[in-house]
Design goal:
With 430 residues, this protein is an alpha/beta fold. It has 14 helices and 16 strands. Strands 4-12-11-10-9-5-8 form a seven-stranded mixed sheet, with helices on both faces. The chain has a four-stranded mixed sheet with strand order 1-2-3-15. The protein has a three-stranded antiparallel sheet with strand order 13-14-16, covered by helices on one side. Helix 3 runs parallel beside helix 10. The two termini are 26 Å apart. The structure holds ligand KE4. The site of ligand KE4 has 19 residues, from helix 4.
Length: 430
Amino acid sequence: MREKSKSLFEKARKIIPGGVNSPVRAGKSVGMDPPFIASAKGAMIQDADGNEYIDYVASWGPMILGHAHPEVVAAVIESANKGTSYGAPTEIEVTMAEAIVQMVPSVEMVRMVNSGTEATMSAIRLARGFTGRDKIIKFDGCYHGHADSLLVSAGSGLATLGIPGSPGVPADIATHTISLPYNNREAVEKAFERFGSEIACVILEAVPGNMGVVIPDKSFLEGIREITGSHGAILIFDEVITGFRLALGGAQEILGITPDLTCFGKIIGGGLPVGAYGGRADIMGRIAPDGDVYQAGTLSGNPLAMAAGLATLNILKRENPFDDLDRKCETLFAGLEKAAQNAGIPATVNRIGSMGCLFFTQDTVTDFASARKSDANIFRQYFQEMLECGVYLAPSPFETTFLSMAHTEEMIKETVQCAEGALERIARKI
Ligand code: KE4
């Protein structure tokens, strides 16, 4: 069935940690070896053994147009024929910056980097440099990449100082991070009561996609905007997933909240390695070389990555697919939820725009604690059944299902049919 993938994985595990270049790809939480992917086109992805799948991972978000979009491929080829990197300023970086500034009004200035991790790490350093403060607030279940200050778990009590979330993160770095429950305005107020004048920033996924999808409570976001403003702390929206996915202006456009800084990634690279951070000019002005907060990168603004990202943004501006993506995603998740109900399996759906998540719990999911009530064993069986049926989902219950412009109604119908069979078979085994 997947012999080539199996032998590649055996080879890979000997020379790449876990056989993968990013842990979640190994599929440990779904108890099976990962298919090795050989190619992709539109919404379809093909593994090394020639098996085809409808792809809902979308490279973890970037592929909102679908894979190998001809205009993106052509832009990358044209750019590559002029050289792959110069390490010098280029016109296309200015064009990319103009596009972001035009599409996201809260961004007055923007700096390109090479990943979402670099974007959030740099934004936090900037917030600390700008305010002269060290503490940061993040939220349980929000993932912002693997910088030390962000690999921190919540302290023992509410609004207490963080503890290292991974070996190698020094305790005295973790202690500057306070991790709070998402959608809990009171916890934020308590933390500011206790540490207010020491807090440089609050960073959050405006719509989390790393504990599955969680819908932010309006008063929670409004509370954070208010309290950061009154305490002189910087509000950072991590829109690495939601940027240019939920709307041209991202989550902040549909939520109506204006952050001080925003982090981007994924879609703005069109599948090539890109991240960015930007926001208020008075804050961004503190970044080297004009300012004294240092951040740099050999391949930042790489011309190929800019070409792929710009082609993607231009197509999103031209096609404005957001209502259609929302409708397709609604059809998919209404079908999945019905399939679970018909099979008698407790399930709840969180969905917004073209991102959604089916949790195997009957409780509503509003934060990480409630997300973790999702039955991991049912998810593991569901993942395996769907893969065998030709549906490629993220191999973790705490990720997001992404729709792209390339997903057709037919594919969505097929996916729901796969889920009906899968969930009926699982229900019989429970
Ligand atoms: P990268 O460094 O992986 O480009 O971006 C980190 C990051 C920052 N912020 C958010 C909201 C993110 O979702 C991410 C990365 N997302 C994960 C999966 N949701 C990437 C997949 C992986 O780690 O392999």
